[in-house]
Design a protein that fits this description.
Elements (H helix, E strand, L loop, with lengths): L1 E9 L8 H7 L4 E10 L3 E10 L1 H13 L3 E4 L4 E3 L19 E4 L5 E4 L9 H5 L5 E3 L3
Antiparallel strand pairs: 1-3, 1-4, 2-3, 5-8, 6-7
């Protein structure tokens, strides 16, 4: 059995699809939802571990692509886009490890310490400016 950790991005037209049901029952995959935020009628993002043999994984990923769900591998890093960050500090109280803080020596900018980041994605959920992104974006 092979395991892949992915991030699923749902467009509005796919948000209300029973995706995990189909991945499990139609494609025989083991699905472990690590984190999810789904806004009915709007958008969604889910971090999942998918486990199955190569043909099951290929069929499941094909299904997701067919219904418009974007699948990206979960990277090992989140990037802080300083040029996009407005230093609103909305992300700081949501970071459970203190990877985000206010740099009081540098004009109150948001400071990011990637070595402390556990990829919980909380910062991405609360940043309305898109200043926290997955490494490959």
């Amino acid at each position: 059995m092979k395991q892949v950790r992915t991030v699923l991005f749902f467009p509005p037209e796919s948000v209300e699809e029973p995706v995990t049901y189909h991945l499990i029952s139609d494609h025989g995959l083991r699905v472990n939802i690590l984190r999810a935020r789904i806004d009915p009628g709007k958008q969604g993002r889910m971090v999942v571990d998918l486990e199955g043999d190569d043909s099951q994984l290929a069929a499941g990923l094909n299904y997701l692509e067919r219904i418009g769900v974007e699948v990206k591998p979960l990277t090992t890093e989140i990037r802080h886009m300083e040029e996009t960050c407005t230093a609103c500090t909305a992300c700081i109280p949501h970071c459970p490890t203190g990877a985000l803080s206010v740099d009081r020596d540098d004009s109150w900018a948001v400071a990011f310490e990637p070595e402390k980041c556990i990829l919980c994605l909380s910062c991405m959920e609360v940043c309305i400016y898109g200043a926290m992104v997955l490494g490959e974006e």
